[in-house]
Amino acid sequence: MKCSRCGLCCHNTEMLLSSKDITRLEALGYDIEDFMVTTPEGFHQLRNTDGKCFFFKDDKCIVYPSRPEGCVFYPVILNLEGKSCITDKECPNYHTVTKREIKGKCKKLKKLYREIVKEIKDY
Ligand code: SF4
Fold first, then answer.
1. For 85-108, what is the mean pLDDT?
2. Domain range holding 13?
3. Radius of gyration of the chain (CA)
4. How many Å apart are CA 84 and CA 95, to the nearest integer?
5. Helix (H, G, I), strand (E, B) or coil at 61
6. Is pLDDT above 70 for 15?
7. Mutate to test the pocket of ligand 1, among 4, 59, 89 (most ligand atoms within 8 A of CB)
8. Is 64 helix (H, G, I), strand (E, B) or coil?
9. Mean local confidence (pLDDT), 115-121
10. Is the distance from the beta carbon of residue 47 to the nearest atom of ligand 1 less than 6 Å?
11. pTM of the entire predicted model
12. What is the mean pLDDT of the chain?
C-alpha cells in the first residue's frame, strides 16, 4: 500500500495489544500504565492522549519500528466477528492495498487475534 503517513490511524485508536506487543514496548522503557488501557471485556489496547495514540508525538509514531503488530497490518483489519478481513475506509489510501496484500496480512491478523483472545481467556 502507499501510506502517506497522514497519521489518521493514530487518532482515537482502539488498536489491540498482544502480550508480545506489550513486552516489546515495555522493553523500550515505557510504563504500561501510560500506554495501555484495558477494556471492560479484558482486551488490552493502546491508550489515547488528547485523542491520539500515546505514542503519536509531533505528528509521528515514536515507536514505529516496534509498533504493535496490528498497526503493521493496518489498514487491513478484521470485521467485528473476527472472521474476515476488510480494509478500513478511514485510511485515505485504503484503495491502494492490493488483494494479495490483504490475503497475506489477513492470515497473520487472524492468528494475532486468536492469540489475543486466548491471552485474555488465560489471564
Ligand atoms: S491512515 Fe492510512 S495513510 Fe494515514 S498513516 Fe495510517 S495507514 Fe498511512
1. 96
2. 8-122
3. 14
4. 17
5. strand
6. yes
7. 4
8. helix
9. 90
10. no
11. 0.92
12. 95
45 part of a folded domain:
yes
b/e sequence 49-84, b meaning 16+ C-beta within 10 Å = eeebbbbbeeeebebeeebbbbbebbbbbbeeeeee
CB 71 within 8 A of CB 35: no
Q: Which atom of ligand 1 is nearest to the CA of 8?
A: 1
3-class SS at 36?
A: strand
- Residue 46 burial (10 A CB sphere; 0-12, 13-18, 19+): buried
Question: What is the mean pLDDT of the segment spanning 67-87?
Answer: 92
Q: Quick check: is 112 in a domain? A: yes
Probe residue for ligand 1, chosen from 1, 6, 94 as the CB with the greatest number of ligand atoms within 8 Å: 6
Q: Does the structure show a pLDDT above 70 at 123? A: no
Total domains, the chain: 1
Is 54 domain-assigned?
yes
Q: Does some domain include residue 3?
A: no
121, pLDDT greater than 70: yes
Query: Could you tell me whether strands 36-38 and 56-57 are parallel, antiparallel, or unpaired per DSSP bridges?
Result: unpaired
